[in-house]
Amino acid sequence: MGICSRRHFLLTICSLQLITTIERQVFDFLGFMWAPILVNFFNIIFVILGFFGAFQYRPKYIISYCIWNTLWLGWNIFIICFYLNVGILNKNSDILNLGTGSFSWWYVNGPGCKAVYDVTEPELFRPARPTNVTDCVLSYEVIEILHAATQCVLGFMAIVGGICLSKVFLEEDDSSKNVIICEGTAKY
């Protein structure tokens, strides 16, 4: 009974991670934020791997999922620090868009936001950046930080759940081999 609840816990966390990552991926595509798009893509792959590992009793898949979630946790902490301008990080830099000049979709399309554009000569390969955005209920930084914080919480729970479940799977796997060791020889 204990293994079933751990397994269902990890399957639930994987499902929630998949849903929230796909949602985040959609908005990153809308804003042409290329670095988050790439990292989200890898997260989707590893979440599916973790789901499969929990569903099929594969501890190695769960361990690789836990290792990825450690990196995913670090990425999301970086995103939080980026939008808070911690240290040398600057939210107006081109780190996340890989030099394309794009910006967060939420910057212009956040709840209640009204953007003012002063484009005299549009650039061919760069999106038009508004000169002023007003009346936002939540600023885009807060929305991006909430997305990253949600991923941090889910990632931490996935690491803990994955470690517990893989430990149980590995203990069961060792006990089911029926190996008897007698005086240096193994009998099967």
Describe the structure.
The chain has 188 residues and is mainly α. Helix content is 62%, strand content 6%. The chain contains five helices and four strands, in the order ααααββαββ. The chain has a two-stranded antiparallel sheet with strand order 1-2. Strands 3-4 form a two-stranded antiparallel sheet. A hairpin with a 2-residue loop joins strand 3 and strand 4 (185-187). Helix 3 (59-83) runs antiparallel to helix 5. The longest helix is centred in the last third of the chain and has 36 residues, at 140-175. The radius of gyration is 22 Å and the shape is elongated. The mean pLDDT is 86. Belongs to the NKAIN family. It comes from Pogonomyrmex barbatus (red harvester ant).
In one word, what is the shape? elongated
Residue share in β-strands: 5-15%
Rg of Cα set: 22 Å
Low-confidence stretches: none
Structural class: mainly alpha
Return the string of H and E elements.
HHHHEEHEE
Strand order of the largest sheet: 1-2
Mean pLDDT: 86
Biggest β-sheet description? 2 strands, antiparallel
Total strand count, please? 4
Helix content: 55-70%
InterPro entries: Na/K-Atpase_Interacting
Subcellular location: Cell membrane
Protein name: Sodium/potassium-transporting ATPase subunit beta-1-interacting protein
Organism: Pogonomyrmex barbatus
